[in-house]
Amino acid sequence: MNKPTDVQPNGQRIPNGMLQDNYPRNMWWVAAHADEVTTKPLARWLLETPVVLYRLEDGSPAALYDRCPHRWAPLSEGHVAGDRIVCPYHGMEFDTGGNCTKAPTQKIMPKTAQIPSFPVREAGAYIWIWMGDPEAIDGEPPDVSYQVDPDWSFVHGYYEVAANWVLIRENVLDLTHIAFLHKNTFKQDDWITAPDTYMEGETVCYEQEFDLAPLSPLFCAGMGLPEDKPIKRVQKGRMPSLAISFSDWNVHDPNPEPGRRADFIMRGCHIVTPSTRGHTHYFWAAAFDVPEISDEVAAKTKASVTAAFDEDKHLLERLQDKIAKDPRGLDYLEVTLGADGAGIKVRQILNKKLAAEGRSL
Ligand code: FES
Ligand SMILES: [Fe+2]
Asked: Which pLDDT score, from 0 to 100, does residue 16 have?
């Protein structure tokens, strides 16, 4: 019998940092859906850091380290007063730069009464955060304006997944698993060949055309298409940043009913943000280039997509658990297939970003 490490001559050493902190700091990550962030402070672990997110009374978002420098109370248990957040324990107040502006029992603030603050941006449907060196900010978050475009309908959801973020990122860039893992949910069993993958600048892309076949029932309701009608499909994926990727289902109905549209897009959006060690925030969205789908269609789409993504969560959590417990762990080589083109580019980009921060997998 082959020894585990001898099995695959073209294998690579993986989990490639899946068990450790493999998170680049100098990039925009999504901290929360915009609706989650209000004047009531929100506690969230991001990149193994406790963060409090809140809005000032003028509506602008802010983020601070969620630990008061006095006796370490979580500021997320406090409240917002104007443009300051007030500690729940002894009432120290902090501005958005993390500077203490008031300590109720004394006039002079200790110089050390300061906490880290994080740059944030509101873009599309999400609040983005920069956890690294603010001097290294080299641009704005990716363009996600379609998420708030009234010509699009936007259905979204959230999971906390007990798996490293790279496992989810690779999962959503290799959709050949749809024909197998999701055979009873997506029911799109024609995705059994590898797409073309290529780079457009810094963006990882894939593209693939499919012959006439019924569309996955997950998306028929949003487009108003019958579930058994053969349609043409072009699948296009883009990953403009390690934090976010899109999978566009470009649908063409060759025989539309009179007065009906022939072409539709469903844009899947997959956002990952590392949380605590071995856990990831996964924000997903399904958007149709159809204005104002009904609440009933939105609810149906959300329920069916959730049923499918439950399958990914289950599998990836088992996978992570196996990696963590298997004594062969990091020495067990992983085989690469043709369908892993986009996933390999993810690892290359990740390695490059970590190297720029003086780190490696
Ligand atoms: S712990 Fe925050 S003011 Fe004392
Ligand atoms: Fe999946």
From this structure: 56
- Thinking of the domain 146-356, which architecture would CATH place it in? Alpha-Beta Complex (3.90)
Q: Is the CB of 68 under 6 A from ligand 1?
A: yes
Q: Looking at the predicted structure, is the pLDDT value of residue 2 above 80?
A: no
Ion ligand 2 neighbours (CB, 5 A) are: 312
Distance 178 CA to ligand 2 centre (A): 6
Q: Tell me which fold the domain 31-117 belongs to.
A: Rieske Iron-sulfur Protein (2.102.10)
Across the range 141-157, mean pLDDT stands at 97
Answer whether residue 153 shows pLDDT above 90: yes
The answer to whether residue 14 scores a pLDDT higher than 60 is no
Report whether residue 90 contacts ligand 1, using a CB cutoff of 6 Å: yes
* Cα distance between residue 18 and residue 22, in whole Å: 7
Convert the pLDDT of each residue in 85-113 to its tens digit: 999 999 999 999 999 999 999 998 888 89
CA of 172 to the centre of ligand 2 (A): 6
The ligand minimizing its distance to the Cα of 85 is 1
pLDDT for 211 beyond 70:
yes
Q: Ligand 2 mean position to 191 CA, how many Å?
A: 12
Tell how far the Cα of 316 is from the centroid of ligand 2, in angstroms. Answer: 10
Query: Which pLDDT belongs to residue 6?
Result: 36
pLDDT for 5 equals 38
Domain boundaries, the chain: 31-117, 146-356
